[in-house]
Every structure is written in structure tokens, then in C-alpha cells.
Amino acid sequence: MPIEPTHRFLRACHSLPVDQTPVWLMRQAGRYLPEYMRVRQQAGNFLSLCKNPDLATEVTLQPVYRFDMDAAILFSDILVVPEAMGMSLSFGMGEGPVLEPFLRTPSDLRRLRPVQPEEQLGYVLQTVTQIRQALQEKTPLIGFSGSPWTLATYMVEGGSSKTFRYIKGMLFDQPALLQQLLDQIADVVADYLNAQIAHGVQAVQIFDTWGGVLGPREFVTFSLRSIQRIIDRLQRVGPDGQTVPIILFFFFFGSMLEEMIGTGCDVIGLDWTTHLATARHQVAARAALQGNLDPAVLYATPDIVRHQVRQLLQDYGPYPGHVFNLGHGMAQDMDPGRVVDLVRAVREESRLLLQQNGGMQRIQEKRP
Amino acid sequence: MPIEPTHRFLRACHSLPVDQTPVWLMRQAGRYLPEYMRVRQQAGNFLSLCKNPDLATEVTLQPVYRFDMDAAILFSDILVVPEAMGMSLSFGMGEGPVLEPFLRTPSDLRRLRPVQPEEQLGYVLQTVTQIRQALQEKTPLIGFSGSPWTLATYMVEGGSSKTFRYIKGMLFDQPALLQQLLDQIADVVADYLNAQIAHGVQAVQIFDTWGGVLGPREFVTFSLRSIQRIIDRLQRVGPDGQTVPIILFFFFFGSMLEEMIGTGCDVIGLDWTTHLATARHQVAARAALQGNLDPAVLYATPDIVRHQVRQLLQDYGPYPGHVFNLGHGMAQDMDPGRVVDLVRAVREESRLLLQQNGGMQRIQEKRP
């Protein structure tokens, strides 16, 4: 029988009551932090930083120490998976990532090789081990991967895209080929996340960054179903006997909550364009929700940050199952001082809200 | 009393029965057409093309003649409005538009000047007159403008943006200043659209291209309300005595249909991420719907194009009030031959669907 977690982040992921709303921020380790920039310079470039367990551990811990975040998230990149599958990955100066050679035909797909996470992605697992050693039981560690659709967009386009012309061409003209690619990626991702769990991550987040460029039918068929395939294969109890919650993050696609819940995830991460009160009402205790402050609020004054935090906490209401986060990642021109304001506001305002509600989160009945 | 229109595009906008589903495509005049490229070269650059009524008329008519579209749309750019308000507009080579100097403070706003559409935007109105002379009563002409929020993003950022940092900073820190700017733009847009109507456009479309980057509360307060201000000021009967339908196009924000209907528009244009059947069910005859094929379908084979068209028509169902369109504009690397396939498929498949339903569009009761 799984052990009930004590960390408020893990408790909230399982929709258990907490003393205050847990908070972490997507891309909390990154270029807006001067201490990150120093380590990155030391590493040479972004990819060498990802591949150096000592330095990747250091930057993972930086925001946890600086802001006392309720969770750490493994410092890495979603594109290490296509690289492990045999593609060549590089990051141009100031430009997006490049994956070569791009995949467009059945013979292109045959070039992909099977992945043993312990081999090709051993450096990530080593980083997980080191972070856990450093954090001990103080702060839970989140592992992650891109969703198969999201990874496939980079692999088929050969990098970032605005129009997604080639992968959408494949989707409409060669759906079976795309499905084969997605299945192959999903199986690698499942093995990879299981390896992260075996090495100690206490929650996993799957980033479906580009599912939002699909129409609703295609979103279900090509994004959600391949995420489902991963979830079906995940080892959901960690080596410590605790259940490992699965967080699905969706960007610009908040309209299919029923289908998202149907994947069996524990937490749905939402961007800021979804009204949190409406989403919670619809989800009604069947999943926890993570999010979803507009990151641009961090450009405003501390008073406004607090006001927006309070509003978001009130939108969610006095129920268990809220993990506070931004609706997207931190940007490099943001002020770390504002993150201090944000974290403090989440703690103080959520405690206040709890007091106003008699000091307990009310349990909401699950919808049938 | 307004006269009932005969054109199937105008009839569909008013949710009146039609013989086949009308079709036009956003950015139907543009770089994917070789005849457009020739005229553009003649004009020198994009902005000179917009400002030359003869050439702007010519490129407006090109897709109408080539594809027999059910509507023409005025060839122009949304940013001629900020230019008329006193900002300097330019388009860099291969880059986005630049508006100088950007607006960030109360004194910046004081630099904006009042607009008499007949003066600063006389070239657009002259183009409208010439297009109507060329089209006579054969094909209706759509006029357009950007929404105040969309125009304000360019005016405050000084051009295109990915993060919308400055306008969102203004939104959160100086909401009254932003509101003042939006009101000022809305009043100019209302005058501008009224002038277009007086010169003969038979429908108007307001493009809310960037409302989708806002959270739901901010979307209502800063985008929808300023669109409402325009609609309240519009002269909705044209010089020919016909009612001029108002189309609102939203990009990446399909979740607030109730609020969109509440503006009093006639047609809601949707991007392809909204399921058309769900949207129609929710809107239920209170507005017509325009859209919403994923433009990327045009990269697929003619068979797939037809299949996707049929599915979309079936999604909408046998009711009046559907204007077929893409969920976003044509891209420059698209094949004009595929547009022929698309238009033919819309006509044939919608006639077939109508036959299967006894040759008549069924009237759906309006929701209370």
C-alpha cells in the first residue's frame, strides 16, 4: 500500500489537504538568475551544462535554495531524448534548437535507434541521483520529459517551427507513419521516465508544449493518445514506496479537460488563458490543477503580484489539489526579486484563505 | 427596414438559409499567388501596395477571379490605423512591422493625433470605392480592422512581440492608461469602419489576433470591451439599405463564446483549435460561425483536403449560419492548386449534405 506523502507539493499533487499552497515555477532554474549564468559560462554552453551532472545538479538546486521552493525540477532539456534516439542536437547562437537530419520518410524513421536510458541518458540519471543526495528528504524532485507529439514536432521539422508544415503534412498525408513515430517516442519516454523514477524523482511532468497547435480531433489522436501510452507504461510507485504523481502540462489548449483527465494523470498543468475557477469546477476533484499565473505578472509591481496571486488562489478556492505555478516558464529578463514577492504572497495569502475557511481545506465530492 | 441579402456569404452571416456553404479565405490575396507577386514588385513594397488604390484593387480581385470566392476582402493592413494616428510604420526585410516611437507613458499617448478617415486613410476608402466599382453586385466586399487590443500590442511594443512584456506591464501596472489608449483606438476604428461602410463594404471583420495571449479576465476587460465599444458605435446599415454584418475573428481563444456573442456581433470567426460542432451547439443560432479548417490541411493531398472539408461541414451540421474559412490566414508557401480543390470540395460537399437533409437548412431554435 502506498505511503501517504508528507511534502505539501506531493500532497497537493494527490489532492490531499495541505497547510499552505505549494509553489514552484516552470524554468525556475535559468538565465534570469545570475548564479545560473555563472555556472552556464563555466559549462561552455547549454547542452554541456545539461550533460554535466555536477553543474546540472548545482543549477537545479539554485532556485530551491534562493526561494525555498516547494519542489525542485531536474535541470535538463526535452531534446536529449531525440538525441539519445540517434539525432544530432545543437543550439545555434540566439536561435532555436536544431535536430539533424530531420525525419520525414519511413527510411528516416529506421535510422532511429533503441534507447537504454542507463546508457545514452546515463548523465541525466546520474544528475537525478546527485540532486536527491543533495536534497535528501527536504524538497521533492520533479523529473520530466516532452510529450511524444511535442518531441516529434522538433524531429520532423528539424527544429523549432512556426507553421509545423512538415509534421502536419505527415499527420494528414501519412498518419500511420506519424503514429509509428509517436509510438516509438512514447516507449522511449516511458522507459526514460521509469529510469528517472528508479533513480529517485518523486513526481514526473510531461510537457505537451505543442499540442495546442492541433485541432481537437488531432489533439486527441496524436497528442493525448501517445501520452496515454506513456502513462499506461509508467511505474507509478517509487523505490521509497510512495506513489509518483504524473503532471501533464498543456500549453494553449485548456478546452479538453475531460479527455486530459481520461489519461489517468494526477495533475493537469494549465497555461494562464484558462480560468482556474471554471477548470476546477469542471475537473471537480478528479485531478489536481497546477498553475496558472500569467508569467508577465512578474513584470509588474510587488503589490500587483500579490493581488494577482490572491485572485488566483481565490479562483481555485479552499479545496485540496492546487499546485501554484506560472502558466508558462520564467523569461530571462525577469527580476529574481519579484519571484521572492511571488513566493511570499502565495504562502501568506494561501494561509490567510485557509484561516478564513476554518483552517481546513474542504473536501469536494468527485464528480461521477 | 433592412433588405434581405441575396449573396450567400451575406445570407450566411445573417444565419439565413443558403444553397451551398459560402467560402472565402483569410489572406486569400497574398504571396502564394504569382499574380500577386508581380503586382507587389510593381508597387515596390508591401506598404506602397496598400497605399496605391489601383494596385490594391487589383490584388483584392485576383483571388475572387481565380477561385470564384464568395467574398472579396479589402487588401490592406491593420497597422495603417496606428500610422494614421501619427506613428511611423515600416516593414523590415523579412522581419515584422516596426511602429515608432513606441507608446509607454501618458506623454507618449498625447502624441497621438485624431483621425479623419477621409484624410489620413483616404487611400483605403478610395480602394474600397474602386473595388466596389469593379465587383458591382457580383461579389460582396468585406472591410476590416484590427481590434484595439491587437493594435495596441504593436503600438506599445513598437512592433511584433513574443512575450508582450511592455503592454502586459502597462496592463498590470497602469490599467487606466491602457484603457485610455484602447478607448482612443476604438473610437478611431469605429470611425474608420463606418467610413469603409459608407464607401461600400458590405461586411466588416475585426481581427483580434492577439487577444489569445491574455488571461480570461484580461481578455474580457481589455480586448472584448474595447471591441464592444466599436460595435456600439457602428453604423450597421450600408448606403444600399442592407444590414452590414460584423464578424469578430479570434485567434487562440475559443473558450469564451458567451462573452463573444454578448458583444452583439453577427459572426464569430474561430481558429482551428475549437471543435466546430461544440461551438455551434453552444452558440445555437445566436451568431453565425466562420471557419475553421487548419490551414496546414492545404499542405496535404486533394483527397485529404476533401475529407477534412466534409468533416468540418458535418461538424457544423445542416443549419444556416456557416461561412467556410480557414482558422488562420494562407501562408506564402501554399499551392494555389490546393485552394481550387478546397473551394470545389466546399461547394460539392455542402450541396450533397444539403440534399441528404432534404435540400433545406434546418432552422435551429435560438437558445434563451
What does this structure look like?
The structure is a homodimer of 368-residue chains. The first copy, chain A, has 16 helices and 9 strands. Chain A is an alpha/beta fold and 368 residues long. The first copy, chain A, has one domain (8-356): TIM Barrel (Alpha-Beta Barrel). Chain A is globular. The model of chain A has no long low-confidence stretch (mean pLDDT 95). The interface between A and B is large, with 37 and 37 residues.
List keywords for this structure.
48% helix, homodimer, 368 residues, globular, 9 strands, seven-stranded parallel sheet, TIM Barrel, alpha/beta, two-stranded antiparallel ribbon
Question: Can you summarize this structure?
Answer:
In chain A, α9 packs across α11. In chain A, strands 1-4-5-6-7-8-9 form a 7-stranded parallel β-sheet. In chain A, strands 2-3 form a two-stranded antiparallel sheet. Helix content of chain A is 48%, strand content 11%.
